[in-house]
Amino acid sequence: NAGVTQTPKFQVLKTGQSMTLQCAQDMNHNSMYWYRQDPGMGLRLIYYSASEGTTDKGEVPNGYNVSRLNKREFSLRLESAAPSQTSVYFCASSELAGGQGETQYFGPGTRLLVL
Amino acid sequence: QKEVEQNSGPLSVPEGAIASLNCTYSDRGSQSFFWYRQYSGKSPELIMFIYSNGDKEDGRFTAQLNKASQYVSLLIRDSQPSDSATYLCAVISSGSARQLTFGSGTQLTVLP
Predict the structure, then answer these.
(1) In Å, how far is A78's CA from the nearest CA of chain B?
(2) Which of A2-11, A100-109, B6-15 reaches the highest mean pLDDT?
(3) What pLDDT, on a 0 to 100 scale, did the predictor assign at position A85?
(4) Fewer CB atoms inside 10 Å of the end CB: C or N, chain B?
(5) What is the pLDDT of residues B14-57, one digit of tens each?
(6) Which segment of A102-106, B73-77, B105-109 scores lowest on mean pLDDT?
(7) Which 3 state secondary structure label does DSSP give A103?
(8) Over the range B47-72, which residues count as b (16 or more CB within 10 Å of their CB) and which as e?
């Protein structure tokens, strides 16, 4: 089991460029999440998908879009990157949105630098 | 606004001592509480979760929950240098969204 995988591991963009961060999980989890982590700010939820076919905004969704491609894959797109989006991005998954299944498992992260 | 507060630290303890990490939360309806450990440059990994008032022990780790005081803590007994990391408290708030809200983390250093 690879768990949660993310690509790329590191990316440098120029302001205004677009890119898609990829995430996949092989644990047959229903729910998937995208977070960003900035120094001193903790993890903040960008978007989540409670189940295949649904997506919802989190705390900081502006400037991002997501696609739940299938049960395994959940991508995050930056349409026009800004320096404020420089961060470490983590994808996570959980079995269910309730009880013990709420435990979230995290991918290794993508470090994004926007110049 | 639903918030989770932690002392940012850094917290330093000598090897073998008990490390005590604290977390408070603002949403009185919160029901699920998690402690994650994050090594520098790595992703968060789950240490423990707790749902009921009282203590929950797992090896050297004990989570304590007091819903009346809106307080959750993590005790690490016999601290080891390998425990040096940032510890994140996370709470699933009340309501249908079931989103996980993280504190900003407490940096722990265990001195040999």
Answers:
(1) 21
(2) A2-11
(3) 97
(4) N
(5) 999 999 999 999 988 888 899 999 999 999 999 999 988 999 99
(6) A102-106
(7) coil
(8) bbbbeeeeeeeeeebbbbbebeebeb
In chain A, residues with a C-beta closer than 8 Å to the C-beta of B100 are 33, 45, 102, 104
The length of chain B in residues reads 112
Residue where the block lists tokens 């435990």: A103
Percentage, residues of chain B above pLDDT 90? 77
B43 closest CB neighbour out of A45, A90, A103:
A90
C-alpha B24: how far from its chain's center? 10
Tokens of A61: 């969704």
Calculate the alpha carbon distances from A27 to A31, A32, A88, A96, B38 in Å: 11, 11, 23, 12, 21
Q: How far apart are CA B71 and CA B26, in angstroms?
A: 9
